[in-house]
Amino acid sequence: MKYSMRRYAAAAIVGVAGLGLSACETTPKDANKQAALHTESDAALASFKAADPSLAALMNRAVAWVSFPDVGKAGFIVGASHGQGTVYQHGGRVGYASLSQGSIGLQAGAQTFRELVVFMRQSDFDAFKSGRDFSLAANASAVAVKAGAAGASDAGKGVLVFVETKGGLMAEAAVGGQVLKFEANQPMNASKPAEPTKAKEPAKPSSSSQPNW
How far is the C-alpha of 101 from the C-alpha of 103, rounded, in Å? Predict the structure, then answer.
C-alpha cells in the first residue's frame, strides 16, 4: 500500500511539473469569447465590491487589478488551479491574464472561486506586464472577501489577493506558487494594409512594327 502511494505521489510530481506546459491560454481566441470574459470579469468585480464595500476605496489607491471570474481547482493529493481573467488599469481594460498553480498535499473536494489580484505598486505591475511569468510568493495567502476585509488588509505588501468561493469546500485559500501571465489587448482580425499598386510599364514596340528602310 505504501509503495503504491509512493508511486502515485511520484506520478503526481511529474504531473505538476508539467503544468507550465499545459497552462490555459491567456487571451481568448475570438471576439465573442473576449466579450464573454469581459462580462464575467465585470460581474465578478461587482460581486467583490458588493461583499466588501471597503474594497472600492482600496482600488481607488491601486495601480491596477486583475479579475478572474472562475478559477477551478480539484483533486486529491494533487491540486491544480487554472483561470482566465481581465486586467484593468485606471478602471479601463488593458489586457488579459492567465493563472495556473500546481501543488501537492492532502487535498479533497472541488473548489471553484473568483479571484481578485490588486497591484498597489507600479513596480509590481510593471513586472507582471513584462511578458514573463509573474509568480506570487510561496507563502502568499488570499483574503476571503467579506465586509471590511479590504480595509483591514496590508497595502504595504504590494500585491493583495482576495477570493470569493463559488462552490465546494475551501478551508483556506493558498495562492502561493500561483503563476500569472499577461497579454496586452490586441485588435482582432486586423488586416494588413494593402500594398500600393505598381504602375504598369509601357509595352515595348515589337520588332515586327519597326519600319523596314
Answer: 7
Task: Give 68-81 pLDDT, tens digit per residue.
Answer: 998 875 544 445 56
Q: Please report which helix (H) or strand (E) contains residue 7, including its range.
A: helix 2-17
| Cell numbers linked to 170 | 475551501
Distance CA(35)–CA(51), nearest Å, equals 25
For residues 45 and 81, give the distance between their C-alpha atoms in angstroms, rounded to a whole number: 20
Q: Which residues contact 14 (CB under 8 A, 6 or more apart)?
A: none
What is the spatial distance between Cα 133 and Cα 178, in angstroms, rounded to a whole number?
10
Of 82, 157, 94, 155, give the one whose Cα is nearest residue 129. Answer: 94
- C-beta neighbour count of 145 within 10 angstroms: 22
CB proximity list for 181: less than 8 A, separation 6 or greater: 23, 26, 97, 98, 133, 134
50-54, 63-67, 96-100, 173-177: which has the minimum mean pLDDT?
173-177
